[in-house]
Amino acid sequence: MLKRLNIQNYALISQLHIELHRGFTVITGETGAGKSILLGAIGLLLGQRADAKAIRNGESRCVIEAEFSLAGYGLDKFFEEHDLDFDGDACIIRRELTAAGKTRAFINDTPAQLTMLRELGSQLLDIHSQHQNLLLSTEDFQMQVVDILAANDKALAEYTSDYTKYRELCQQIAELEENIEREKKDEDYLRFQLSQLEEAGLEEGQQEEWEQEAQTLEHAEDIKQGLYTADMLFNGGDDSSGILQSLREVMRELSGLSDMWAEANALYERMDSCAIELKDIANEISSGAEDVVFDPERLEAVNENLSQLYTLYQKHHVNSEEELIALADEFRSRIALLDHSDEQLDSLRKKCEEAEKELFKKAEGLSEARKKAAKLLEEEMQQRLIPLGMPNVKFHVDITRRDGLTAKGLDHVEFLFSANKNGTLQPIRQIASGGEIARVMLSLKALISGVVSLPTIIFDEIDTGVSGQIAERMALMMKEMGDGGRQVISITHLPQIAARGEYHFRVYKEDDEQSTNSHIKELAKKERITEIAHMLSGSEITDAAIKNAEALLKQ
């Protein structure tokens, strides 16, 4: 439950501190006094979006902090999963907002993302505002009520997960069928293009080899003549000695000097190493001269290969063999898709059919649970609405079967309603008045609260459209919810509801020389009498209003 709330520099609130209680609490005050500001501040703690405009005029930041008591609500797992400190009871949530628009959030002094606040907040507190009455007209809300009473949370979560996988399979089949249809139109083109690429004998580095070979063949005579000249210089001709012969003579001279000059051996060894390398070079030059042959047929073949390669580059708008090889691999994959499309489709369709059968079984299970819960809901709503001024009420949960599977199963849920003795059941969104919807929503919340262990429920003027004895009975229902061990807070303008609260807070505004400030105060017994008398008679309190207020509080 919400134990305390501190607000600093938020809207019209400069400083506010309140201690709250378990059970049924009411909050009253004039319109515009700041009750909606309180709810806005609490909403920020629950992860709602922040607006820097909410910061009190002239201040640099606002801080909102609340302490919750969570003992006995089984929320330990949340704190463990998010690695948050938790002593099993106290939980402090703080939200800070700066004028620059920056916001920070903390759970037990640990920085927290807004998603964490929303997840935790949904398990701590439910704010039922007037606009939420509109939810009653939506099928999602009606389905949710039935599923809560049916305890379908785990089964529905499992079904939803499986349904998502089933839809993904259906999407894969549709995409594969579309791809196959598209590829079939291009099949002849794909096979032709692949055959051209395969005929080119593509290999990485092939272009460079062909270009080098063509260069060699085109200049074969010049290369051969140059190699012959180099060979003669190395080995010498008929009338001259070559480089190798001169080198051997130098080495003989150095060898003869070795006994007389110590450095001669080192020079000899260095020249010996050079001689070995030069001899290898000479041999390669000699053999190269023999190997280089002008071959016009081979030159023509190489040039044809290069021409074909350059044509493929231009045709496919690429610049390298690697890109052509990758393109060929892509063509093979697309052709393989066509060649094996039937097997792939059959496999996916089989999986999809099996998933669909399993989903139908789970959907049937959800339907059975919903039908049982619907009967309970009808009985409970009948019992709760009759005391709220609807003696002839009829409430029916209409569950019909859809044509196919949906994310929630096979069911369509519609709340049918009639408040009159001779009335016919019609969808509640079409027939119920504002006051009737308020009473229906309160009854649903009271019923659901008995199933869901939510620590705190705040009703923001749920009494709209009702008055007198009906308002009193609504107050008794909220008090009953509070007596069940939870915290129920009602923001109200009706004295009949205000008088039933175990605790009573008043929101009011005060002006000083610079600004207007909103305050909240817990009322003592005499102050409650005065406040309720104000609610009964207006600004001027009459003796009759005082007596009436006293009588309401004695009930």
Question: Summed up, what is this model?
Answer:
By secondary structure, this protein is of the alpha/beta class. It has helices at 35-45, 76-81, 114-124, 139-149, 153-185, 187-199, 206-218, 220-235, 243-257, 263-291, 296-316, 321-339, 341-385, 428-431, 434-449, 468-483, 495-498, 525-537, 543-554, and strands at 2-10, 13-19, 23-29, 61-69, 90-98, 103-107, 110-111, 125-128, 394-406, 409-418, 426-427, 456-460, 487-491, 503-511, 516-522. Among the domains are: 1-128 and 502-522, 3-Layer(aba) Sandwich (Rossmann fold), CATH 3.40.50.300; 187-339, no CATH class.
Describe the structure.
This protein is of the alpha/beta class. Among the domains are: 1-128 and 502-522, 3-Layer(aba) Sandwich (Rossmann fold); 187-339, no CATH class. 55% of the residues lie in helices and 19% in strands. The chain is built from 19 helices and 15 strands. The chain has helices spanning 35-45, 76-81, 114-124, 139-149, 153-185, 187-199, 206-218, 220-235, 243-257, 263-291, 296-316, 321-339, 341-385, 428-431, 434-449, 468-483, 495-498, 525-537, 543-554; strands at residues 2-10, 13-19, 23-29, 61-69, 90-98, 103-107, 110-111, 125-128, 394-406, 409-418, 426-427, 456-460, 487-491, 503-511, 516-522. The strands form 3 sheets. The protein has a 6-stranded antiparallel sheet with strand order 2-1-4-5-6-7, covered by helices on one side. A 6-stranded mixed sheet has the order 8-12-13-3-14-15. Helix 7 packs antiparallel against helix 11 (296-316) and helix 9 packs antiparallel against helix 10 (263-291).
